[in-house]
Design goal:
The chain is mainly beta and 343 residues long. The protein is 12% helix and 37% strand. The protein is built from 3 helices and 18 strands.
Length: 343
């Protein structure tokens, strides 16, 4: 006796379901092969995808930055995209290009380093010291913000531990095209010895801005960029001075954009000194007092006792226009009084 056949409409529905499942499985398989993240139901908010050797951070479906942590002398962000997805960092040396001055090959995107910790140079990279990624303690996407928590070991040329850091990086989803990134870093000294942050100008939280934003161009002539401190000092007057914040702005693809770094009021030695250069370097450095103020060598040293820790907090604000048009001072006040900035 023949089995009773299902109605044709039911058969078609079964086949559609099977076909959809097959297509989805095939798509996910190809996504794995390509090293791309699985598709999400919605692109709203801050998404963090773990790719090969780096994290990809998107805001509402648009690339904001990538965090490189594997097989590098130290972790760094590159590229960093600001308003209208304009590049806020120079390309070289991450990308090979003939359109940029090829100087300071250790200055990639956005990074944290220092040239003198227990006498070891973690800034220039040529001394074979390494800031070595250990693991991510948290990767948390979210509608309003996304968070990366990472553990790193700072190793001397022999691979011996000098200190470790736990950094908490929070990226915000704000209305419009403004971009905010909080960078909090806690250093832990080994249990058997103190750690000394040496007195040297080259450090610490730093970014190399887009080539067209420079205060001085490649031919040592005035560029179209500008530097301004919260104190009102501008351009060539800003190097080695103390201030709550420093803003570096200039044209990218015909539009004026800028990046400001905020020094949190609770930071040791606030307000910090600014190691900011006409060729595009912007760095907050609380340790280089000897260089910045022409004081006796060693004036800027800071020691962290054995088994003790110390924390520094910063915010980067990527914006349109100059410091006035972008209301940088108001944004700093918001940051300085925010409880979330301390988390």
């Amino acid at each position: 006796m023949l089995e009773k056949l299902a109605p044709l409409s039911q058969y078609r529905e079964i086949m559609r379901t099977k076909a959809s499942s097959t297509i989805l499985i095939a798509f996910l398989f190809l996504a794995v092969l390509a090293g791309r993240p699985f598709p999400s139901a919605a692109a709203d908010g801050v998404q963090i995808s773990q790719l090969e050797g780096k994290l990809r951070v998107e805001i509402n479906g648009q690339l904001f930055t990538e965090y490189h942590y594997k097989d590098v002398p130290r972790p760094f962000f590159y590229p960093v995209l600001g308003p209208d997805e304009l590049a806020m960092t120079r390309k070289w040396p991450v990308e090979q290009t003939t359109d940029e001055q090829q100087d300071h090959p250790h200055q990639r995107g956005l990074w944290y380093a220092h040239s003198n910790i227990d006498g070891f140079d973690f800034w220039t990279e040529g001394k074979r010291c390494k800031i070595d990624h250990q693991k991510f303690l948290a990767l948390e996407p979210g509608k309003d913000s996304g968070t990366i928590v990472e553990l790193n070991n700072w190793l001397d040329p022999d691979g011996t531990l000098v200190c470790s850091d736990t950094r908490t990086i929070r990226i915000y989803n704000r209305p419009g095209d403004q971009r905010l990134l909080d960078f909090n870093i806690t250093f832990q000294a080994p249990s058997n010895k103190p750690v000394v942050f040496g007195d040297d100008k080259d450090g610490t939280l730093a970014t190399r801005v887009a080539e067209t934003m420079r205060l001085q161009d490649r031919n040592k002539k005035p560029g179209q960029g500008h530097i301004v401190l919260s104190t009102g000092l501008r351009d060539e007057e800003t190097w080695g001075k103390r201030a709550d914040w420093c803003d570096y702005y200039g044209p990218v693809n015909g539009q004026t954009v800028g990046v400001a770094i905020f020094d949190h009021p609770d930071n040791p030695r606030h307000p910090t000194w600014w190691h900011v250069r006409d060729y595009g370097l912007l760095a907050a450095n609380p340790f280089g007092i000897h260089d910045f103020e022409n004081k006796p060598k060693g004036s800027g040293e800071l020691s962290v006792g054995a088994g003790q820790s110390i924390t520094f907090r910063y915010r980067l604000y990527y914006h349109r226009g100059n410091e006035t048009q972008a209301a940088v001072a108001d944004h700093y006040h918001e940051y300085a009084t925010s409880k979330s900035a301390k988390q």
